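INFO worker-7 received task bundle
INFO bundle size: 2
INFO processing item 0
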Amino acid sequence: MPVVELNSRKIHYDLIEVEKSDDRYLLLFLHEALGSIPQWREFPKELCEKLGLNGLVYERQGHGLSSPLTNPRTETYLHDYAFDELPLFLDSVVNKKIKLILVGHSDGGTIALLYASKFPGKVHSVITMAAHVVNEVETIRGIGPAVEAYQSGKLDKLKTYHGAKTEDLFYAWANTWQSPEFEQWNILADLGTVTVPVFAIQGEQDQYGTAKQLQLIQENVGSFCQTQMLSSCGHHPHYEQSETVKEEIKIFLTKMNFSEGKGLI
């Protein structure tokens, strides 16, 4: 797996190349709060093949094979990833002429929206799954069972992906979202400067957020925004309804001037 060094931090990534891709565009996959490259499973590759576009998946600092966290998490950690780490990473590995289609899940969806709010000229469109734009009571409530599951060993599989970093990563996530400083966290002001098309997806049974997340994205994004609530679906639409999600993304991009076999025009 390729690696790039950013200010003494090693960041691991993976490239997905498909035949006859439109090299003017790149799908960039941004993982969830406890995510890594393998935790995406086959979704990135399958979406790239469906759209005829190359893809890039990377692991943020603290995740997977990337360097461990070096600083305590604060209420600005998602902004830090979007405004500091991600631009440095992209400048190191992506041709500046390429337009990005951001595909983010959970924390990754929030980071995608934040990045697009500051660097709209580098982005074609944003697709989010289970993104958070406010910290709801339901979000905090959903973390409690996850902490219990982690402490009882039911989430030990996370160690397969994050190794010795697992505990620091898990509690950086859980403690930050449950902290008093994060209670009023939101990115609504940032959404107003998102000027590229957005497609926001969420599951009706998402234990970490309600339909309010989709509503606020639609009301506050400063551009065309499409939302979709999936029935019989929880926090992982790309696992639970993978075929539907891939098809709906393709339909959305078709509206945004995507043409099969011709790429994005």
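INFO item 0 finished
INFO processing item 1
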Amino acid sequence: MSFAWPSALLLLALVPLAALGYLALERRRRARLGGLGSLGQVVGGDGRAWGGRWRAVRRWLPPWLVLAGLATLVVALARPHAVVSVPHQEGIVMLAFDVSGSMAATDMEPSRMDAAKAAASAFVERQPEGVIVGVVAFSDSGLSVQVPTRDQAAVLAAIARLNPERGTSLTQGIGAAIDAITDAQDGVQGYYTDRSPAPDQAPVPAGPGSQDAASVVLLTDGEATSDRDPLAGAKAAAAQGIRVHTVGVGSAAGAVLDIEGFRVYTQLDEPMLRTIADMTGGTYHHAASADDLQAVYDSLETRLVVEAESTEVTSLVAALGLLFLTLGGVAGLAWSGRLP
């Protein structure tokens, strides 16, 4: 157990002083009553022993309860924190953003990249409780730019920083998203970690979409310019049971880009995106219909996760202290007609 205000525990030194003060007052009171004699004593061998023990309980239990209550309230004043196992429902969604040069095309207003950002931001803001979101950016390589988190502001800020860059590798994007999901499920909280050695035997492939609590939302125009096998990432996701929901950004008519003096034609490759979604048990959507992205949430289930969290338990400790004080006061009034 830790404390937010540990200096408050110094007040515990007053509790023994209070106990000594009570003992002094009790001796003085009994000295004044000494000449009055004893009334209502239980006579006989066993009765006398039992009566003595019961009188001792009635005499000392109330003040000790009060002292325990005062000590407990002092501990509560120090704001104690305890590490407890907290169960909650959790789902993981990785937003995999295509940041290749073709995402600068303007066949969607104001551009493919801006349309993807808008669709993703609306997606994040509709995030239900218990779903954590991370962000991956990919062009000819993939990079996790925001580990999965419940902090919506951090996710939205990561989305806002994205800008178009080089070529497109769908495999790298999906692979980076799968790695981020695996790290989140294993409890890894950063980019650099000492991983366990790879298993001697290859894991048994899972059925496509078998991991209902984890999915990837791939926002891209679908043009794979840097992949030898553009479906390799989809095959890896399907083998791990991770759904890939694809979001097409762009138009079938396409657009012409001026890149370093060259005119490049680019268009939305919907057949590729539908194939990736079908292979992994996901769904295909078009970024222009952002409301349809709610279907991704509808297909996402949650899992029960138990995490060790540092939780402030001041209220519980304070309630225990008040309970001791109340019991001590009630016992004193019931047995001796006065407060301890």
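INFO item 1 finished
INFO post-check item 1: Confidence is low (pLDDT under 50) at residues 39-47, 188-200.
INFO post-check item 1: The first helix runs from residue 14 to 33.
INFO worker-7 idle
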